[in-house]
Amino acid sequence: MGFLDIDNATKSYGSVEVLHKVDISVQEGEFLVLVGPSGCGKSTLLNMIAGLEEITSGEIRIKDQVMNGVHPSNRNIAMVFQSYALYPNMTVGQNITFGLEMHGVPKPERDKAMQEVAKLLQIEQLLDRKPGQLSGGQRQRVAMGRALVRNPDVFLFDEPLSNLDAKLRVDMRTEIKKLHQNLGTTIVYVTHDQIEAMTLSSRIAVMNGGYVQQLGTPQEIYDTPANIFVATFMGSPAMNVMPAKVAVLNGRPHAEVATHDGSMAQLPFSQDNLAEWDGRDILLGIRPETITDMDGADRKSTNIAQMTNRIVVTEPAGSDTFVSMQLGGRDVIARMRSDAEVAAGQDFDFAVNMEKAVAFDPESEMRIVP
Amino acid sequence: MSQATQDTAIRTGRVTRTLIYLVLVLFALFYMLPLYVMLVNSVKPLAEITGGGMMNLPQVFTLEPWFKAWSSAQIGVDPTGLRPYFWNSIKMVVPAVMVSTILGALNGYVLTKWRFKYDTILFGLMLFACFIPFQIVLIPMARMLGLMGLAGTTWGLALVHVVYGIGFTTLYFRNYYAVFPTELIRAAQIDGAGFFQIFWRILLPSSGPIAVVSIIWQFTNIWNDFLFGASFADANSQPMTVALNNLVQSSHGVKEYNVHFAAAILAAMPTLLVYIVAGRYFVRGLMAGSVKG
């Protein structure tokens, strides 16, 4: 029994089911991020928690109270919208206290709450301005102030940073994280940005096509993705996925992958159970940062494989150098130290950290679980 | 707005520009000619008009025709001038404009933010009201007014105009609210505002430009209406347009053209004033939503 329970919730528009049996339990103080491409149902799910969209079947409970059919204002939730949704005709102060006013809180208390929130978010000097006179970052703060002032059980964020420019987005991301650490509130946060999801969350629900593809901590999602969709959606650049064949050599399962000239590279797996797949095709998943030069290989890893392959392109990006090559007939990216000595057209000895490699069933696209 | 005009205007040479202005000024003068005739002749003694020279400036300046048109000209049976009918028009126009605008705003609010099944069909049907000719509704309307006991009253006339205007006002507000961010409505719902609180506190305060469009449109139409006024009003509730007609068309006595001119200007004055005061918001309101600001 969690703080916020989503219990087999589905959503249909007419005969079209857009959200299929979602089952998530959020603990008090948890930061849950719903992430996925547009149209995956994440905003619909958030709106169902808020009560802005009805639940077709299943149940949503907050603090063990069933919320189906309860009006949004009676759920003790607060929501921050993508467009901030500040009332343009009211001052910042009125925007923040509108919800309290609607709930019949007397003016002196409202003003006190407003001052506290304004101090917390450092927007005291803006209270008399209209939203139209504020910058994007200031509007964002006011929108959060409006949510905070009601002291809700659950905060809902609907892509709150997507309207900000890149630099401000990073700053606000840190601030939201700080706020969560200081206040310990329960947050459900929708985004399509996998970096936001990774940095902010205590748990992530990766969604696609109306299904929750995987629910887990950022580390679980990143290291042991449930399927190819999760593997390639999370992480930037995306995980390299290429066709390979399993071969048992000296009693140990290896992945055989074609390099640029058609010769086979043999990469030993750490997962022994893959021996069952001897002679069969799989899809091999390798994250870019686990393909490096020999010097840059992870020293803690017990399974570094060596592989010679030709470099097609190098892209120095300051902090890292991205190297692309042909592997298994696909373009594969390696992420190296910026001072790795690499040049296009060169045959290079790569180190592959096979401890982190994952294998997928090419039929179901699910990860082959060790 | 003026800046935008300058930015988008095509650059032209000085000679072309002078020519353009010359043509524009000529057209403007031509269009102002009727007003000039009316103004000049309304401040002349009658003898100067009947003696010919409609276009001449007055030799003797007098405001007598204006006073007469306002308070003592013979209209129907009584020499009352236009004054009582002016108030009839006001009593008809003000409630009719206010009620039809508020109902239009409510309709627009419901049709865009509280969508329901068949709402587009309903809206389509309401749009028919904009295209139904006045003549078709005359007899059914007369019957309805009779049944409601409002025949021959100013209230009845106001009601007719409200009903006839809702189609237009709904169209205006629906299109305006269609681009009003729905997230604001949702935020207000979460804040605990009800149906009417959202309308009064969030939507209406942001509806200035379109409200001005609706008010100008309704005011002009209702004030200038003649057919409904002539059909549904009795002698005591006639609006100004009908009274003006009775004054000008009266078949006995001398035709006092100077009084007629003054009366016609008096009857046209309120719509002119409304447009001068609120006109600049009119274009802004019509443009609202069409261009991303």
Main attributes of the structure:
heterodimer, A: 370 residues, alpha+beta, six-stranded mixed beta sheet, five-stranded antiparallel beta sheet, 8 helices, B: 293 residues, mainly alpha, 14 helices, disordered N terminus, disordered C terminus
Describe this structure in words.
The complex is a heterodimer of chains A (370) and B (293). Chain A has helices at residues 42-50, 92-102, 107-121, 136-148, 166-183, 194-200, 218-223, 228-233, and strands at residues 4-13, 16-26, 31-35, 57-62, 65-66, 77-80, 154-158, 186-191, 203-208, 211-216, 240-249, 252-258, 264-268, 281-286, 291-293, 304-316, 320-327, 330-337, 347-353, 358-360. Chain A is of the alpha+beta class and 370 residues long. A 6-stranded mixed sheet of chain A has the order 6-7-8-3-9-10, sandwiched between helices. Chain A has a 5-stranded antiparallel sheet with strand order 13-12-11-14-20. In chain A, helix 2 packs across helix 3 (107-121), helix 2 (92-102) runs parallel beside helix 4 and helix 3 crosses helix 4. The radius of gyration of chain A is 25 Å and the shape is elongated. By secondary structure, chain B is mainly alpha-helical. In chain B, 74% of the residues lie in helices and 0% in strands. Chain B has helices at residues 2-8, 14-42, 46-50, 64-71, 83-113, 119-131, 134-148, 154-178, 182-191, 195-203, 208-224, 227-232, 240-249, 257-287. The longest helix of chain B is centred in the middle third of the chain and has 31 residues, at 83-113. Chain B is flat and about 75 Å long.
